[in-house]
Amino acid sequence: MSETTDLVVIEKANALTVFKSADQIEEILAKVEREVMSFVPDVNTAKGRKEIASLAYRVSQTKSYLDGLGKDLVAELKEVPKLIDANRKTVRDRLDALRDKARQPYTDWEAEQERIKAEEEARIAAEKLAAQIEADHEVALLLNDKFDRDAAEATAEAERKRIAYEEELKRQAAEQARIEAEQKAQQERDAAAQRERDLQAKAEQAERERLAAEQRAEREAKEAQERTARLAQEAREQAEREKQAAIAEEQRKAKAAEDARLAEEKRIADQAAARAADIKHRKTINNQAKDNLMASAGLTEEQAIAVITAIAKGNISAVTINY
User: Fold this and answer.
1) For the segment 43-53, what is each residue's pLDDT rounded down to a tens digit?
2) Cys bridge to 151: 5, 121, 181, 252, which one at CB 3.0-4.6 A?
3) At 170, is the pLDDT very low, low, confident or very high (cuts 50, 70, 90)?
């Protein structure tokens, strides 16, 4: 029975072979990577965004499946945990990076939507503020008209009273009314001007806030992209360091094995040389003893050899040859 995911198929019987081979793991990851890189994201439709999320989920499921399969192998095969764990980490890191890459268009789209929302809120606030300024301006104009009407009525009333009062008193009253009217009009104009300045200040503040929100959204989007790039670079560097460490370990083991082989060959050669030297030494001593027996005992060469051989084999009691 085969264990499957949407993106990867591995026979259970072949799982150990796969996880023991960096090349086969690379082929699996390359297949998933091709699937991700060939996908054309579309964040402008709900279907497109759903497909982006689906692809990221499938990559994540593939990571969980491969990681779980490797974990089971580690539990069953204690003699190869380091190799399997190294490949599990490669699977996790690469597929996490691919998952983030697959979802990046969706992430960028979400950030863009937040920026658009902030910009729209700032625009609406500015429009409301502009409308309020316009309304306040109209009120100020109406107040000025009312003041003009009140001033005209006051002038007319002063003119009517001029009949009953002295000419000078009427003139003084009219002058006083004019002064007061001018002062009041000036006060109203000052108040209206102040209101306009306040509204203008509010509009400028709203614009500054809108620009700040837009800049903040752009800055946060840029920081998110830089953070993603930095994490991907760190993952690649970590994978490279682990790869170099594994290569160095293999080279160390190979050198140790070669050193042991050379040492064993030297030991065997030394033993053989020692045996050859001993045989040569014994042969020299035996030949000297043979010559002595022939010279001193009058033995033939065959008899002398037989005697030396018997002594060497320990067949003659209390007699030995000192080599």
Assistant:
1) 899 998 888 88
2) 181
3) low
